[in-house]
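Good day; I would like, with your permission, to put a structural problem before you. What I wish to show you is a protein chain and, alongside it, a tokenised description of its three-dimensional fold. Here, with my thanks, is the record as I have it:
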Amino acid sequence: MSKTKHIGIVAVSAEGAALCYQTICSAGSEYMGPHNHPEVSLHTFPLNDHVKLLDRNDLKGLARLMDNSAEKLISIGAEIIICPDNTNHLAFDFLKTTKQIPWLHIAREVASEAHTAGYTKLGLLGTRYLTESQVYPSALHNYGITYTTGTEQDRQMVHDIIFNELVYGLTTPESLQKLTSIIKNFQSQGCEAVILGCTEIPLIVNDENSPLPILDSTRILARSALKTAIT
């Protein structure tokens, strides 16, 4: 192994975590040469365990669950922790393992990328838990970036697509049409790009079919972890 940091993935949904893992491994070649990447480990509890805590708004309980995953990863040598799940970052401030090991915060990485690209107003897609929270507003505010999440009906529609389809790896033309319609509305409101603030949304929305440039939170986090691991 090259001298790189061991990346630990605190997984939540299988689809989001798999895309994050795949990105780290495939993009590693760009930085480290053919077929090379840092050591990567992943741990996950059932998605249902996370959702039950979110439904009760038990953010401290959610943080304990994430810490439990992180501790398992630390015990096998992880030196950086990431969680490829935007919604679970509601519990980020309650995490205890952040005092033991560096964690990368997905919204902060996305906000930094948006700032570098020069964006000043963004649309945000994600679960209702996320879009009605301060996870992204806090991160974007640091760069003076404004945002919109669409109507209440839009937010519920995106939430339903995520939990009824995308977390199972299912995509349909009908759901893509609904999502691109919301993105077009963002565009009409002056948004310059859209945050795919759910790690499963890149399964259905991409650069080719989105009316706006995308900020893919899954791949942004994966690449940030990769760069951190090799420096």
Observations:
- The chain has nine helices and seven strands.
